[in-house]
Amino acid sequence: FFIGQRALVFMLAARVQKMSASSATGMFLFYSALNGATMSFIFLAYTMSSIAATFFICAGTFAVCSIYGWVTKRDLTGLGNFLFMGLIGIIIASIVNIFMKSPAMQMIISYIGVLIFTGLTAYDTQKLKSMALSQPVGLDAAVVRKGAILGALTLYLDFILMFQYLLMIFGGSRD
Questions:
Q1: What is the model's pTM?
Q2: Rg, Å, the chain Cα set
Q3: Does the N-terminal or the C-terminal CB of the chain have fewer CB atoms within 10 Å?
């Protein structure tokens, strides 16, 4: 599931402009369902109360960061580039930690991941707002829909990954 999810995200992001709007929508819905099936395993690893508490913490954080990205006059482009480099760094650190199996390293990665996806939420919201405001009048509805799908995918990934990192920090294990 995990590899299929990642492949689907990369394929959707890379090919969304070349496919029909209905195909892009279908792929996004399929990805969301696949992600839901994969995420269902958290119920085996964490207590229901820790999942719920973490979800509400994540939802509140996501909402505040998204509102900030929407209303701020500050250009977050430089921050977005810096956070993207940080994202590459945590991906590399996560791969290394697969072999090291260090709980301390995983905790550090989780804290950094929360910071990165908090910032990316504000940046991505601002980027999407800018894209929406700069669309030419009379643009084809299919093009607008594809842009909306990419925006939804971006914010969806920000939320899910922030939730996963927060769960690693706050989640009460069933063990």
A1: 0.88
A2: 17
A3: C
